[in-house]
């Protein structure tokens, strides 16, 4: 993850304009345009020189969720946490 954020800072954030950051929707459009148009198309050293898109296409383990999976129960749950004055979160 740290490498991802370094890449975002070095390749995307430095090129953002006021138009890109005028709203959350505009920022999301710019982010996805960069991810799909540049990041996924750029060869990565950690992927042996192939692009993330090529690596994904080569993978046999990529699968879509079973339509019968109850994704709401898997992903839409709530958990109460308490934020301390020092900004730490207790579990």
UniProtKB/TrEMBL annotation:
Protein name as annotated: Integrase core domain-containing protein
């Amino acid at each position: 993850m740290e490498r991802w954020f370094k890449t975002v800072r070095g390749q995307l954030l430095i090129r953002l304009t006021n138009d890109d950051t005028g709203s959350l929707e505009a920022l999301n459009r710019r982010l996805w345009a960069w991810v799909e148009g540049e990041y996924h198309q750029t060869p990565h050293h950690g992927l042996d020189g192939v692009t993330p898109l090529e690596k994904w296409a080569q993978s046999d383990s990529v699968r879509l969720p079973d339509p019968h999976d109850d994704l709401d129960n898997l992903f839409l749950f709530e958990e109460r946490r308490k934020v301390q004055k020092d900004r730490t979160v207790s579990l």
